[in-house]
Amino acid sequence: MKVNIPPEQRFIHWWFWDLQQKDIDIGMPRVLEKAYDSKVSRDELMALLEKIHVLKVHETPLPCEVKYNKIKDGLEKRKKEIKEGRVIEPERHTFPRKTDLDSEASVVYDEIELLDNQLYAWEIRNMFISYLNDENTVSYYNLKNKYIDSFDKEIISSDTDKMSIAISNSFLKLLEEKIVRISETFQN
């Protein structure tokens, strides 16, 4: 049984040496369009940036122009969707070195690296919003010992009674930790 893998999947996931020219000619423009429209994961985006560089290094003609500013705009849109909980970003498995990419791609690379650091905070933020909105998907215990990186309009517009209790508990815990640290400092 022969499995038919779409050219864009072959382009993104296969090694350069395993690709046929038609995989590049059909797959690359499709993946680029998805990147422009925020429809690729950060893992796929890294693979795309790496593959574009490899194609240039081996002097393989690119089937279309690469617009890094549009890729960055697509990534910004995806970041917003992730933060709002509309997209679940899969775990990242592609970690190219910055030197293995075009210099124009370094801005996108840096944004992906920054996103890696933001994902955990956004996950907690979305859990907190679910808790405040009584979605019964998150309990108070899931949020215990977790910190919110910032309070935005969505959090503030949530259930104010629950929010004030959660803020009070967090504030008290933080205050307690500060007092313990200060007392330890004076004891030494």
Could you please describe the fold and organization of this structure?
- The protein is mainly α.
- The chain has 2 domains: 1-71 and 95-100, no CATH class; 102-188, no CATH class.
- The protein has 8 helices and no strands.
- The protein has helices spanning 7-13, 21-36, 42-57, 68-83, 106-132, 140-143, 153-156, 160-187.
- α1 crosses α2 (21-36) and α2 (21-36) packs across α4 (68-83).
- It is elongated.
- The model has no long low-confidence stretch (mean pLDDT 82).
List the helices and strands and how they pair.
Layout: H1 7-13, H2 21-36, H3 42-57, H4 68-83, H5 106-132, H6 140-143, H7 153-156, H8 160-187
Overview in brief:
This protein is an all-alpha fold and 188 residues long.
Tags for this model:
63% helix, 188 residues, 2 domains, mainly alpha, elongated, 8 helices, 0% strand
| Main sheet overview | none
Number of helices: 8
Which class do the helix and strand fractions yield?
mainly alpha
Number of strands: 0
